[in-house]
């Protein structure tokens, strides 16, 4: 684990796009990728960090390869430009835990659906002001499906 960190999740979100495996490591606060052999899933190279300092949970990947990552500890959904590693905050969501693109047509296809737990600060302080929910964020580009 990261020095001084409480034991918690390691690899959390995990998705394959083509011959690249993407994953978040919540404890090390990294978003990573690793080339894989698409025939048997074995490693085809070393893992590398795309972005450090991002304690991501689940994520989804769009048609251009950008990742949309739930950052539960910061109550944010962020866009990670996989090619350049830039990070943009898309929305504040209380405790985002999972994200997926819609699979219908039109707006649904360009929408991220984000489930949330209501936010970690509420659990810690006992001040539950927001319950768990599903939110929709229009990102203007459809998701990647195999």
Major beta-sheet overview: 4 strands, antiparallel
Overall average residue pLDDT: 84
Distance between the termini: 33 Å
Rg, alpha carbons = 15 Å
Instruction: Please provide the ordered H/E string of secondary-structure elements.
Output: EEEEEEEEEEHE
Q: So how many helices? A: 1
Shape: globular
Q: For this entry, what is the oligomeric state of its chains?
A: single chain
Strand element count: 11
Low-confidence stretches: none
Main-sheet strand order equals: 1-2-3-4
Q: Roughly how much helix do the residues carry, as a percent range?
A: under 10%
Given helix and strand content, the structural type is: mainly beta
* Fraction of residues in β-strands: 35-45%
How do the helices and strands line up, and which of them pair or pack?
Elements: E1 11-17, E2 20-25, E3 30-35, E4 48-52, E5 59-61, E6 67-71, E7 76-80, E8 87-92, E9 96-101, E10 111-116, H1 120-125, E11 133-138
Antiparallel strand pairs: 1-2, 2-3, 3-4, 5-6, 6-7, 7-8, 9-10, 10-11
